[in-house]
Amino acid sequence: MKKVMNKTMVAATTACLLSISTGAIADISSTVKLASDYTFNGVSQTDNKPALQASLDYAANSGFYAGTWASNVDFGDDTNIEWDVYAGQYFQLNEKLGLDAGIAYYTYQGQNSDGNYPEAYAKFGYNSSVGDSELNFWYSWDYFGADVGHYIAMAAHTFEVTSGHNVRVSFDRSTSQDVKKWAWDSKKAYNHYRVEYMTSYKGFDVNLALEDTNMNIDSADTRVVFSIAHTFNL
Q1: pLDDT tens digits, residue range 179-220?
Q2: Taking the model in full, what pTM does it have?
Q3: 66, containing H or E segment
Q4: DSSP per residue over 70-108, as a string?
Q5: Which of 71, 81, 108, 142 is at a distance of 20 to 30 A from 52, taking alpha carbons?
Q6: Can you name the CATH fold of 2-228?
């Protein structure tokens, strides 16, 4: 059943993106990224190896957006691709406060993959004279296909060091609502800390991050992650 949903949602999102009129073509973009590691909330999804990632996105003037994103993964089994779809709406609540709300569906491609799952999210952003602050929430009612509730809460702040050079500091906590079905290092929850430097050079976005968690597993230990990305306006 999950694989049927996977194909249906991917096909629907792709069809939506490709069927948009030529008058809105400037709102379609694609980003390609090369990263030294693909970490998801501080946990490596590529067995501490590099990742090649790409997305296709549509954004309307109304604030609606939809897209699809893919990356190689390595979980030690035959799963080798993560392919996600998402859609949401951005609301500008006032001059400084914005809300991004939507839903995503994560799929994992492989003969024995059964970890597909949905996730809803709400992200609040606040712009001030000292930088951009974020308060973000994610919730899944079937995390990694384990029929368990799971939520993530994140606080982050980005500030400009000098023109074109920014630093983002974030803290997030991932929590399982049933440790019998899903546990993090035999625990209900774990913390993730990340500090990243962001800049751009000749059309490429460059990111260098230092991150760590409070779990004692190799895939979630202290690491430095470097990435470089380029966005193409289609």
Answers
A1: 999 999 999 999 999 999 999 999 999 999 999 999 999 999
A2: 0.89
A3: strand 64-72
A4: EEE---SSS--EEEEEEEEEEEE-SSSEEEEEEEEEEEE
A5: 142
A6: Porin (2.40.160)
